[in-house]
Design a protein that fits this description.
Glutaredoxin, 4-stranded mixed beta sheet, two-stranded antiparallel ribbon, 5 helices, disordered N terminus
Length: about 190
């Protein structure tokens, strides 16, 4: 009985996170992060598959947030570790306080001009709630509430095996010891 309740809860969670195709038909939920796709900031396809075998830090970002200064630390973290197989994926979101109101082109320019960002950036996406990008629904199903962004600059660490390792709140800076320890362990 307990087993069937647990299985029912798992199936309900997976169904909630199921991605859909362009016609709206439910697609199987990927078992690893590499099965998800984003749109890149220039409108092209950004498959997570391109990061297979790498450690990925997915960060929902916003240009007009008090945490926006974290872009400097994120860029440094990326520059210091990319040769080791580390990637940061920025996912701009306007979900919190309307702090990312610009177009994708404006966001890209802002990140380039003000922070010299050269890590991959997705197009603006919803990162929480019923309309969240399927990746965010999947990580929440896997890690629970620690994976659901509560504000801008929330971080989700994905291991080389494509599985989520941990979520880190907005106040966790890119130089935070706990985050660096988790990244170094994953590398």
């Amino acid at each position: 009985m307990l087993r069937s309740i647990a299985l029912s809860a798992f199936v309900a969670t997976v169904a909630f996170a199921a991605p859909t195709d362009q016609a709206g038909a439910a697609q199987p939920v990927p078992s690893v992060a590499y099965g998800f796709n984003f749109t890149d900031i220039e409108g092209g396809n950004l498959p997570m598959e391109q990061f297979r075998g790498k450690v990925v830090l997915v960060v929902n970002t916003a240009s007009q947030c008090g945490f926006t200064v974290q872009y400097d630390g994120l860029q440094k973290l990326y520059a210091d570790n990319r040769a080791k197989g580390f990637v940061i994926l920025g996912v701009p979101s306007n979900d919190f306080g309307g702090q990312e109101p610009g177009s994708n082109a404006e966001i890209k320019k802002f990140c380039s001009v003000n922070f010299n960002i050269d890590f991959p950036m997705a197009a603006k996406a919803v990162v929480r709630g019923d309309k969240a990008h399927p990746f965010y629904k999947w990580t929440k199903a896997k890690l629970g509430s620690q994976a659901e962004p509560k504000w801008n600059f929330h971080k989700i660490l994905i291991g080389r095996d494509g599985q989520p390792i941990a979520g880190f709140g907005s106040a966790v800076k890119p130089s935070d010891k706990a985050l660096l320890t988790a990244i170094n362990k994953a590398l």
